[in-house]
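Deliverable D5.2: sample structural annotation.
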Amino acid sequence: MSEKRHKGRFLTIFFSVICVLYVLPIVVILINSFKKKAYISKDPFSIPSEKTFIGFENYVNGIEKTQFLSSLFWSVFITVGSVVLIILCTSMCAWYIVRSDSKFCRVLYYVFVFSMIVPFQMVMFTLSKTADTLSLSTPWGIILVYLGFGAGLAVFMFSGFVKSVPVEIEEAAMIDGCSPIKTYFSIVFPILKPTCISVAILETMWIFNDYLLPYLVLDIRKYKTVPIAIQYLKGGYGSIDMGAMMAMLVLSIIPIIIFYLSLQKYIIKGVAAGAVKG
């Protein structure tokens, strides 16, 4: 009993240290966002004093320089549109794959799974050229691109969950006169809620924070997402407005943290359900 207690204390201390290491960079960014630029590089870990404290000037300066509100709008628009489309299309696709259970569907499922392990760097130049050719260099067009990249994980998770849903429920609905579409939206989709929320969280954290894909695909003269706008604080000859950048990093972190904390209790449940082997 004593050995188990010591082991439990050790694990508690160990994971507490890991937690602190993860949170520390965010705390450092928050502290430096209220300091004058000259003191951020000199003493980045110190608490703002009367001499170094600058208030919200970095935030005002950063918002003006980056046109943050416009960038935030495009980031939210692309993220919400992409996540909604991913959830709708991939959940229907996964349902069809599992219920049809044909050779074609099994091959299609493994194609989706394989897409999860293909590095983005292998296709980014071809993708950029294709997006430009198909006129996808807009916030509306990049949503389709995100659908393609996000489909692999989503189909994998939805397929695992659908396998755990009794097919008799759907058969009973069809006997009562429901069409396949009505059966899906009335019976199947509400049951998929835990996995839908898990997919939404994972895809939102990826899309909202993504820098490389929007930079390659979007016409950044017209449309800048938050990561791209923050990068523009880096001036010529390596000069960086560190104060404004720290402030904008804090503002960019807040929405995703609020979204995650409000739904994080569903992650384990949804991921575990999506990993069920039929």
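Annotation notes: The CA atoms of residues 86 and 150 lie 7 Å apart. The chain is about 75% helix and 0% strand.
The annotation will be released with the project's public dataset once the embargo ends.
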